[in-house]
Design goal:
Elements (H helix, E strand, L loop, with lengths): L7 H9 L7 H19 L13 H13 L2 H13 L6 H5 L1 H6 L4 H30 L4 H22 L8 H23 L2
Helix pairs in contact: 1-7, 2-8, 2-9, 3-7, 3-8, 4-7, 7-8, 7-9, 8-9
Protein name: MAPEG family protein
InterPro entries: MAPEG-like_dom_sf (IPR023352), Membr-assoc_MAPEG (IPR001129)
Pfam family, one: MAPEG
C-alpha cells in the first residue's frame, strides 16, 4: 500500500503550496549572499590583477566575461544531473503523463525541468547586471566574486529544491544567488555615480 505523500501527484501538489517557510531560510540566503563574496574579496582569493589595456572599464568587462565562463560549469552539471530524469524521450521531458507512461517518475522530470529553467532565469538577471557594472568601471574582483558565488549558490538552490523534507530550503539558494545581482547593481551604481 502506498502512502499518500509518496504519490508523484501529491509531491507536485505539495510544491505548489503549503505553509510559509520560516523567515530564517531567506535571511540565511541573504547573509550567505553578502558574506561569501565579501570573504572572497577580502581574503584576496579574487585578486584584481589582470592584463591591463589602459582602460579600467575594458579590463573589468574582460575579467567579468572570463568569470561568466564559470556559469557553463553550472549548466553542464545541470545537464548531467537532469539527464537521468529526462532520459527516455523529448516528449517525456515536457509531459508528466508521457514520463509516467515511459516508466519514469513524473515528479522528477518536472523537478529537473524547473531547476534548469530557474537557473536560466537567474542567469538572465545576473548577466546584464554584471556586464553593466563592469562597463561602468566597477572593481573586477567584486564582480568576479559575485559571479563565482552565484554559481555556487545555484548548486545550493538545487540541493534545497531536492530536499525531500522541506523543499522550501531552495529559497536559501535563490536569495543568495539573487543577492549577487543586487551586488552587481550596487557596484554599477557606485561606479556610475562617483
Amino acid at each position: 500500500m502506498t502512502n499518500k505523500s509518496d504519490s508523484p501527484v501529491d509531491k507536485m501538489n505539495d510544491y505548489k503550496g503549503g505553509p510559509l517557510p520560516s523567515p530564517v531560510i531567506p535571511l540565511l540566503g541573504f547573509s550567505l549572499g553578502v558574506g561569501v563574496p565579501y570573504a572572497l574579496v577580502e581574503s584576496r582569493i579574487m585578486s584584481g590583477s589582470h592584463a591591463s589595456s589602459g582602460n579600467d572599464a575594458v579590463d573589468s568587462v574582460l575579467a567579468t566575461l572570463q568569470s561568466l565562463g564559470f556559469a557553463s560549469i553550472l549548466f553542464a552539471a545541470e545537464f548531467f544531473l537532469g539527464a537521468a530524469a529526462r532520459s527516455t524521450s523529448t516528449k517525456a521531458s515536457f509531459s508528466p503523463a508521457a514520463a509516467a507512461a515511459s516508466g519514469q517518475n513524473p515528479f522528477e522530470v518536472v523537478q529537473a525541468n524547473r531547476i534548469h529553467q530557474n537557473h536560466i532565469e537567474s542567469f538572465c538577471i545576473l548577466f546584464p547586471s554584471a556586464v553593466a557594472a563592469a562597463a561602468a568601471g566597477a572593481d573586477a574582483a567584486w564582480i568576479r566574486a559575485a559571479v563565482m558565488s552565484w554559481v555556487g549558490f545555484r548548486f545550493v538552490y538545487r540541493l534545497g529544491y531536492c530536499n525531500q523534507n522541506n523543499p522550501f530550503w531552495r529559497i536559501t539558494g535563490v536569495a543568495a544567488a539573487q543577492t549577487q545581482s543586487v551586488i552587481c547593481g550596487w557596484l554599477w551604481y557606485k561606479a556610475s555615480n562617483p
